[in-house]
Specification:
By secondary structure, this protein is of the alpha/beta class. It is built from ten helices and 13 strands. Helix 1 packs parallel to helix 2, helix 2 runs parallel beside helix 3 and helix 6 runs parallel beside helix 7.
Length: 319
């Protein structure tokens, strides 16, 4: 059986109903190892682009997923949101071109570390909506939050983001994840706001950790800091939105509860109430979750007084 590449549609705070496309093979492959990452620790820390899935394999999975969805469950976006950094996939441009046949807007959420590479820029220019990560605009803070591959040139990265912003004809957004004690001091926020303002995004999202992070002690700033951050961005003339709440429990389903749980939890931890609704919609047999937990294929952890379920990628987990 081929890997589960698609998942959802899931409720997205930015994109409505988003059909996720996980174009990176597990375990996590990324140029960052962000302290707040909801997918867990980076297994392969790299800047090297490589092939993962072929464009036709992703196309077939998206097509089959859309066929299984009923009319009311069609997504607003096809979103490349991977188990790592989606632009590490050398087939990204060809895949996006192939998916355009569905006439559904295509989104890519990227950490922007490869925007100095012409092939990456060309791939993202094919998308309709692109979000670039800007957690910090000074190198010291950036390294503390994103834990990048050492070969990344931070100054070049900022220059490349600005250059892409000037060329991109779709909707460009930025996302800044605020982490208590790491990038939320006044001078750090002012520097970040100045840079974000310079690239003129359609929307700048300020978000906080709402799911279990890679580093356990990672916490969201308090409300006073969030309000200060929003005001700094707003005063800089940026259309700014806070993303601090839970998305809701509604998620897409295919009728195969185990497959749905495993595909979603690979990149998008499921809160308990969200999982309960998924089980109901899939008419899942009793004990489905317990079976996956017992087999070691998912794990349950508590975060902010809620239980979340995540895909377990341990080598000794049962298949």
């Amino acid at each position: 059986m081929s890997a589960a590449i698609t998942f959802g549609p899931v409720p997205s705070r930015r994109l409505g109903r988003s059909l996720g496309i996980n174009n990176i093979v597990a375990p996590k492959v990324c140029s960052y190892a962000c302290v707040y990452c909801q997918v867990g620790k980076t297994a392969v820390h790299t800047l090297e682009r490589q092939p993962f899935y072929g464009p036709e394999e992703i196309f077939n999975q998206v097509r089959n997923h859309l066929k299984r969805s009923d009319g009311e469950d069609q997504p607003d976006y096809l979103t490349f949101v991977a188990n790592g950094e989606p632009t590490l996939d050398v087939n990204l441009e060809a895949t996006i071109r192939r998916l355009k046949i569905f006439d559904i807007p295509i989104a890519v959420i990227t950490n922007a570390t490869l925007l100095h590479i012409p092939g990456v820029v060309q791939a993202l220019l094919e998308a309709d909506w692109v979000s670039v990560k800007v957690d910090a605009a000074d190198e010291t803070t950036w390294r503390r939050v994103n834990l990048p591959v050492k070969e990344i040139n931070f100054a070049l990265q900022l220059q490349s983001i600005a250059a892409f912003a000037r060329r991109f004809g779709g909707k460009l957004c930025t996302e800044t994840m605020l982490v208590s004690g790491r990038n939320d001091a006044g001078h750090q926020l002012e520097t970040t706001a100045r840079f974000v303002a310079s690239i003129k995004p359609a929307v700048a999202y300020l978000s906080v950790p709402t799911r279990p992070p890679a580093v356990k002690l990672t916490k969201a700033p308090d409300e006073e800091v969030l309000n200060h951050a929003w005001n700094l961005f707003n005063q800089a003339g940026i259309n700014t939105e806070l993303l601090t709440g839970f998305e809701g429990t509604t998620t897409g389903y295919t009728g195969n509860a185990e497959a749905d749980i495993l595909s979603i939890t690979a990149v998008h931890p499921l809160r308990h109430d969200m999982l309960e609704e998924l089980l109901h919609n899939d008419n899942a047999p009793a004990g489905t979750v317990e079976k996956l937990l017992d087999e070691g294929r998912i794990k349950a952890i508590e975060y902010n007084s809620h239980i979340f379920y995540l895909r377990s990628l341990k080598k000794n987990s049962k298949k």
